[in-house]
Amino acid sequence: MLNFEYYNPTKIVFGAGTTATLSRLVPETARVLLLYGGASAEKTGTLADVRAALAGRVVHEFGGIEPNPSFETLQGAIAQVRAERLDYLLAVGGGSVIDGTKFVAAAAVYDGDAWDVASSRGAVVQRALPFGAVLTLPATGSEMNNGAVVTRKATHTKQPFRSEHLFPKFSILDPTRSYTLPVKQVANGLVDAFVHTTEQYLTYPAQALPQDRFAEGLLQTLVEIAPRALAAPDDYDTRSNLMWAASLALNGLIGAGVPQDWATHMIGHELTALYNIDHARTLAIVLPALLHVRRDSKRDKLLQYGARVWGITAGSEEERIDAAIERTRTFFESVGIPTRLADYGLGQEAVEAVLAQLEAHGMSKLGERRDVTLEVSRAILQHAL
Amino acid sequence: MLNFEYYNPTKIVFGAGTTATLSRLVPETARVLLLYGGASAEKTGTLADVRAALAGRVVHEFGGIEPNPSFETLQGAIAQVRAERLDYLLAVGGGSVIDGTKFVAAAAVYDGDAWDVASSRGAVVQRALPFGAVLTLPATGSEMNNGAVVTRKATHTKQPFRSEHLFPKFSILDPTRSYTLPVKQVANGLVDAFVHTTEQYLTYPAQALPQDRFAEGLLQTLVEIAPRALAAPDDYDTRSNLMWAASLALNGLIGAGVPQDWATHMIGHELTALYNIDHARTLAIVLPALLHVRRDSKRDKLLQYGARVWGITAGSEEERIDAAIERTRTFFESVGIPTRLADYGLGQEAVEAVLAQLEAHGMSKLGERRDVTLEVSRAILQHAL
């Protein structure tokens, strides 16, 4: 096991009907900015429930945070916080709204250029406004970690950052909030949580037995619930397991004491920034190709993954690895997410464009061994055509 | 999944050589009371390392906290904190020292009778001194939760309590600290962590898939590492997995959103209080008998446990349950811990004595369904003879 520090002070309040607990979770004297995305938070009644729980408090609102929240859009929220002297943020939505809220929490109290918060990967963040979240979309895990990604539209840059000051004080996870999600978003959530897990698991053996078992348990859970998650939107147990599994996949626990990869994410971010492909879909494109190209480096863990998650125990090592990768690809396809660049209308030109962006963003040493060079990324993208 | 709140702000610093981080973890201006147990902390060099990391600080010391820390002993530490106006506690040891430190943290700033802290099960605790821990014995999980047990020797009472104010600020987990432990204590730790897990897992199905997988993963890990944990005291990977698994077994995570039992612990506490049997050994006596007596109530989870942890898939339901219980008993025996009351020189008189204590302590409705009456406890104890 590698040395590690683990710290996660976010309080999780989980279950149907828990939005009312906002009245005790948000300090009474707080001057709140409620941040949300599109019309769905209004239409589903979530915003109404939130407003009711905070009735009588000072609550301002900022809507319109888009998927892959943009630096440009978030300027408006920062200005509003400063103009109204607000001191507490409440994100109502999925990972994009929560990520955007983290950016606002740090940037609103930062004295320099707001983009520094992201471009420094959070290093300049010395403090942040306190914030909580009401989660509506299980996927990114942002509700229980201190990381975020914002996009600068002007330069097609998706920039991850994190800071110990950016844990939500609390997150309310009510699985019924997910009942009205489009099937496509549920499928994206399944794949997002799955790949968050593999980024912290499919590396090289570090003799971290509980972490491996936990990661495998999350992958097994996601595979087990996927059919009903798509087919039965109001199955409470299924949606509960999806919501909690997605949080557990990226709350720091399964990644503590083990090597981490994240090359799939970094390559995927460029696909989103260039072609506006949903984040999870970029992961479904990149991961199977990456596992194929990196099969030697990841051999031991791929065999373990095949055996424990998919029950693959017969055949030569190469056959078992092939089967494990194929089952992964088939799983993504089974939830309706295509796994080839061609499925998104992209060809060789995309390979070149993504490589140019990776180079421009300093992404020439990716992966758990920092040996996913641009040439390796090229091989991965070629295999994903 | 049941509704739940999960909150755990303890920072874990894990790995060989991490004791030096005390210098940044303990506030510079803190007036520290360092609490420890017997001579081993001195002999192994742990205390020397701690003192070196805190050189130049105000550090007082209180040694002599015994296994099953007593209210009577801890009075001395409370008096010392008050006399020297100390404001930060540092536990160096295993679960007993950390539990005792939690009691001191709460009682030293409580205005009434110190025993109220325990007898109210923590309800009277409105605040506590901040404290950290340097763990030397993987077993109880106290280093990453807000619960503790203290014993009032005068009345043979083991009293559990907990409070949101009693999470350690940090815990340092250095697996090499466990190298010098007697084999008996390592065996106790394996069984303690195992039964902490089953108390939160072997109940009735709650459709909490990640929690089940995590619990099974911890049980599998403990079974897998047990032989080398006993035979190879300086195997870093094995001791790392034992230490981290024991913390994960009782940090609140696998118990969030699921029913919990704890009858084995409550019955076991009486055995310790009456006959001074090591805590883990009482669990090894009670659990197999409890599973046998409660087999109908726990049927579904016993079958799942048998299949997933022990690979038992052949035979009738009764046969599979018998096999799962037998594997559990054999596991405890395999680490050198006897599982019958007779092995500890106890017979029918102990059954009566424990029942009288359970009744005196209001323990007549135990278990995940609150239907472990005194008569059920009698059946369990009879089966454990």
TrEMBL record, chains A, B:
<dbReference type="GO" id="GO:0046872">
    <property type="term" value="F:metal ion binding"/>
</dbReference>
<dbReference type="GO" id="GO:1990362">
    <property type="term" value="F:butanol dehydrogenase (NAD+) activity"/>
</dbReference>
<dbReference type="InterPro" id="IPR056798">
    <property type="entry name" value="ADH_Fe_C"/>
</dbReference>
<dbReference type="GO" id="GO:1990002">
    <property type="term" value="F:methylglyoxal reductase (NADPH) (acetol producing) activity"/>
</dbReference>
<feature type="domain" description="Alcohol dehydrogenase iron-type/glycerol dehydrogenase GldA">
    <location>
        <begin position="9"/>
        <end position="175"/>
    </location>
</feature>
<dbReference type="GO" id="GO:0008106">
    <property type="term" value="F:alcohol dehydrogenase (NADP+) activity"/>
</dbReference>
<dbReference type="Pfam" id="PF00465">
    <property type="entry name" value="Fe-ADH"/>
</dbReference>
<protein>
    <submittedName>
        <fullName>Iron-containing alcohol dehydrogenase</fullName>
    </submittedName>
</protein>
<dbReference type="InterPro" id="IPR018211">
    <property type="entry name" value="ADH_Fe_CS"/>
</dbReference>
<dbReference type="GO" id="GO:0005829">
    <property type="term" value="C:cytosol"/>
</dbReference>
<keyword id="KW-0560">Oxidoreductase</keyword>
<feature type="domain" description="Fe-containing alcohol dehydrogenase-like C-terminal">
    <location>
        <begin position="187"/>
        <end position="364"/>
    </location>
</feature>
<comment type="similarity">
    <text>Belongs to the iron-containing alcohol dehydrogenase family.</text>
</comment>
<dbReference type="InterPro" id="IPR044731">
    <property type="entry name" value="BDH-like"/>
</dbReference>
<dbReference type="Pfam" id="PF25137">
    <property type="entry name" value="ADH_Fe_C"/>
</dbReference>
<dbReference type="InterPro" id="IPR001670">
    <property type="entry name" value="ADH_Fe/GldA"/>
</dbReference>
